[in-house]
Amino acid sequence: MSNAPSQSAAIGRLELVEYPHPALARKAKPLAQIDDAVRDAVAQMFDIMYEAQGVGLAANQVALPYRLFIVNVTGRRGVGEELVFLNPSLSRPRGTAVQEEGCLSLPGLRMDVRRPEQVVLDAWSLDGQPVHLDLNGFLARVVQHEFDHLEGRLFTDRLPEAAALEARRTLASMQEVFSGRQARGESPSHDQLVARLDALEAERCVV
Asked: Is residue 29 a part of any domain in this protein?
């Protein structure tokens, strides 16, 4: 992955997307380079995350098809550490823990989710340096939640059957609202959204 001057078109203004935007179900592709547009996207992602009072945000959640997510476990600008992980991979899951999770792309929905308590993260930083972290506790959970987004998974995909049935009622309601906006022309069509993702992917990703 190169850390190169920007010669690509700007990504533009980003916004948080909600279920069932197609970006959320799409497996993100590795970034081939870090350019000025990617750096600007990361800055926008932190703005969006703080405004929404979140602690992590994946590129899928702002309709970018890139293997990239950000974290600040405090959820507060100027407090804690801002972490950026590009092209991450997870390994060595250990232990198990159950904790309530929510998602900025699933507003109002919170459920208990079982995950490994510890995990090893390998990634690249925004300045092109390798990152290797052995994580545990809350940070490990946030990282796994955001990594799932890059795999096209939501935390609802990890729920046991009874909880999943309850969550599906909320998801169905969100689907109805989303489809209504598209039908009224207030939101781009599914094909238009996917075409935008395809174009962004072709421009900067390893395919």
From this structure: yes
